[in-house]
Amino acid sequence: MPVRRRDLFASAALPLLAAEGFDFDTPYNRIGTDSTKWDAQLRRYGKDSIIAGMGISDTDFRSAPVITAALQKRLQHENWGYLTMPASFPQAIIDWNKHRYGITIHPDRLLLAHGVHPSIISAIRAFSPQGSKVLLLTPTYDGFFGDITAAGCIAEQVPLKQSSGRYQLDLEALDRHISHDTNTIIICNPNNPTGNVWSRDELSAVGELCTKRRVVLLVDEIHCDLMTKGNQYTPFSLLSNREVVNNSIIFKSASKSFNLSALRCSWMYSENSEYMKRIAATGHSTDINTLGVIAAQAALTQGEPWLNQLITYIDGNHDFTADFIKTKIPLLSYNKPQGTYLAWVDVSRLIDKIGAKAQADKANQSRPATARPITAEMILQDWLVKNAKVQLNAGTNYGHSGTGRMRMNLGTSRQTLNLALSSIAAACNSL
Ligand SMILES: Cc1ncc(COP(=O)(O)O)c(C=O)c1O
What's the whole-model pTM score? Predict the structure, then answer.
């Protein structure tokens, strides 16, 4: 039956698909779909080199049925010309944030984007002159380094402190790093890759420092839906100090929670209309592809039961991993994080055992002075592919303080996770 034009964006009219009992357990084969997590690694390391891609931050699950149904419905209308944004999409973002977290987003202070990267680049351009510093609390998401460079600025790392097995904000160090040429700081909550979920007090303290030192705070909350059991996300815009909230811009998307990364659709908002005007004036593009809008709108309006079940499943994957590493891979250690589907695994003893530091030093001797140095963690990444056929990401990708760590993505079926961990255990335990 032909689809009527007015139905194309009306996801409320879609059939309600199974509200419970979604299948996260059956492995969903992504090989052959040009996926970064699997196919790109097979291209890099060779045919049959990988049995588990556990790297880039997306998930392996079959999409929420409501998303697939909405996309299939739109595909029936075979025209892909320019899109005028339907009012229902920003409304879906506003309603989702209100309903799930009690956040009020004013429609005139909301800007859409084709991804969190482009919106962060626009925000840096709006506030940080070229050549100035942007501070990062590391280890943190490696993509920020590229965003800062793309905006013509310089990333400066402020390492998080480690105490009692948890990363803590180092406010004194942050204060010291702020200078006359610091206009923006990026904070990530929950923090990719460590999985820290910053508390209300921690967020307030960073926010107050930024207000005092006149630095605009960019808060990336893309992973905010993905909490582990017993933990709660504090939306930055709900802090009680309005001056602090007014000095921030929040970046979000449905792309982590619903695995829509390649459909390129996200949003940013602030209480501060002047800030949003400045970002819009950079030439920031709010164009999003039609399918990205359809998918994100279906996710936000109908995907909550799927997401809630996913969150429980991911929590189970963290418990499974913690138990597996504790009981079967004594060379590694791992603490369950407060959020994200990422495991930040301590591999320092494995690095020592395989002599990865010496190998990295040797590899660097023959590299041009301008090349990015090889780290022990990168050597370990290749070692794990060669010996366990599992691809993880080197901790040093996320800043100098990622030394001795690897990031392992747990957003996959328990079966694939078990396969990956068993293979890593066999490789480690045969040393
Ligand atoms: C913290 C964080 N911010 C931003 C991104 C990228 O967002 P997008 O794909 O919307 O540009 C990622 C992806 O891994 C991320 O982890």
Answer: 0.94
